[in-house]
Every structure is written in C-alpha cells, then in structure tokens.
Amino acid sequence: MDNPFNYDMETAWCPGCGNFGIKNIMLKALKELKEESVISKEKLVMVSGIGQAAKAPQYLDVNYFNGLHGRALPAATAIKAANPGLKVIVESGDGDMYGEGGNHFLHAIRRNPDITVVVHNNMVYGLTKGQASPTSQHGMVTPIQVKGVFEEPINPIALAISMGVPFVARAAVHEMEQAKEIIKKAVLHKGMALVDVFQACVSFNKINTHKWYRENTYKLDENYNPSDKNAALDKAGEKAPYPLGIIYENRERPCFEDNLRMYKKNKEPMFKRKVNTEILGNLAESLK
Questions:
Q1: Domain membership flag for residue 279
Q2: What domain range includes position 131?
Q3: What is the pLDDT of residues 252-266, one digit of tens each?
Q4: Are 61 and 4 a contacting pair, CB within 8 Å?
Q5: Most buried pick, 45, 80, 157, 277, via CB within 10 A?
C-alpha cells in the first residue's frame, strides 16, 4: 500500500481478525487527511492502552504513546493540553476503554479534550483469551462465564450521548468506506469524538461473527439529523439491528484546552515559552 503511515510488519493478530480491517480503514483515513492538509506525521500522536486493539498504533508509522491498561485517555488528554497543535487519536478495545478505563472514560467526557477516540468493539476480551467484556451480550458463554453472562452490557453510545460527548458515532469493519469517512469527520471535529467500531474476534467470540455484524446492523438514513439529542438517544437504544453512522453531533461545548488558564492570553504551547529565571529564582529563595 502506497501510504506514508503504513508500517509493514508482522502483527500479533489472528488470521481473520477484525483489527486488520480497522487498520486498513485507519490507514486510508490518515492518508486522505494528510492529502487534505488536515494532519501531518509530525503533528499526529496516537495513544493506546493494553490489548489486541491497543497494539494497533504500533503497526502504523506514526508517533504513539502506549500506556497502561485502561489509561490511554489521561495520557491523550495531557498530550493535547501540553501541545494543542497536535492531532491526538486514541485507539483501544472495548475492554481497555470501557472496562479498566471506564472511570477515565467518564471523566474525559466531562473535560471534553479535543481528541478522537476509536474503540475496537468485538464484545469480548481477545488478548486474555475470551472472558466477557463490558459489551458482551447477555447470556454469552465464555471460558470464565461458563453459565453465561448475567450482567447487562454497557451501551457506550447511549452513555456518551447522555454525558455530552459532542461527536458520537458507530462504525463497522464491513462498511469500510463509511467507517473511513466517520473517522475523518471525527478527527475534524472540535472536541472529544467517540467512534465505536464493530469488529469480529474470530478466535474467542463465535457469536458476534463477521456475518452476525453484517446481518445485525444498518446504515442511518441520509435524512437522519444527528443534532437532535433525543432522537440520538433513541437511536443509541436500538439493538440488533444496530445503527451505523454519526449518531450525535454538537459543537457547542468548549474544549478542555481552551479552558486552561495558561492558554487564555497566550496560545503558544508551554514547551515553546521562555523560562522566567527571575520567578524561578524568587521561588527557590522562598523555599530556603
């Protein structure tokens, strides 16, 4: 593939894994965004946690930060705050983002950093051999939940909309062109953008297969209005078939970086500013 972001290397993913599809979608989106002068390799940072999905940035030719399990969002928020001129994309799985990272997910929503969050949602933990994830469906039998999952699955779309994420979308690997366009729009959006991407885990989820996702999803009608929050919540509640597309979009919320005191009068990133040695000297003297 003639793509400046492509990094041809062996992966740890199983043959047939939906992560390959998301990698190709992301590569096409990044290439087109570069051609449209929206991003450059020098000003793009990808962030991830732990898991098969979280390995995705390692297989791209990009700057990336690989953090702890469930801790991608704090790092991404800090990177964006330290250098608002960067485009920051988080890429992780449903377990990493909504399970271990659930608390950070909630508070990132409250802060609304200008970052794009792409979640590989295969409704199972793939790295640790198939136990139920926060999005596993009720009744699913796993090596751990041998009598079936009795908890209700989290609805990340409904949760994100209800808490005020200004851009919320669902995509799927089998709708590659739509998924690519959604990710591009998410990157262009000012504020936190969540793109939950359906993908199959061929090794550990024999229920939610590639065929299942094709048969249990549909594309939103072109006349659908994503600015209507009540209609968006109704769409978020739909199950089998699940809607694919931009479900909610609102540009009214200020971003986390715009609220930081250090950028109120001076938009220059902190690392570019000159150190005031007089203030530092006075501070040092006061501590003696």
A1: no
A2: 18-256
A3: 889 999 899 888 888
A4: yes
A5: 157
Specify the length of the chain in residues: 288
Element (H, E) at 224: none
> Which residues touch 176 (CB under 8 Å, ≥6 apart)?
21, 24, 25, 28
Please check whether residue 198 is in contact with residue 171, taking contact to mean a CB–CB distance below 8 angstroms. yes
Residue in the block written with tokens 């200004």:
166
Q: Is 179 helix (H, G, I), strand (E, B) or coil?
A: helix
Spatial separation of the C-alpha atoms in residues 146 and 168, rounded to whole Å: 34
Cα gap 195→185, rounded to integer Å = 10
1 domain-assigned: no
Local structure of 17: helix, strand or coil: coil
| Residue 13 maps to a domain | no
How far is residue 239's CA from residue 260's CA, in Å, rounded to a whole number? 39
Among 93, 95, 242, smallest CA distance to 175 is for 242
Name the β-bridge partners of 112.
none
Residue 111 domain flag: yes
pLDDT in tens, 183-230: 999 999 999 999 999 999 999 999 999 999 999 999 999 999 999 999
Q: Which residues of the chain have pLDDT under 70?
A: 1
Cis bond before residue 134 (omega within 30° of 0): no
Number of separate domains in the chain: 1
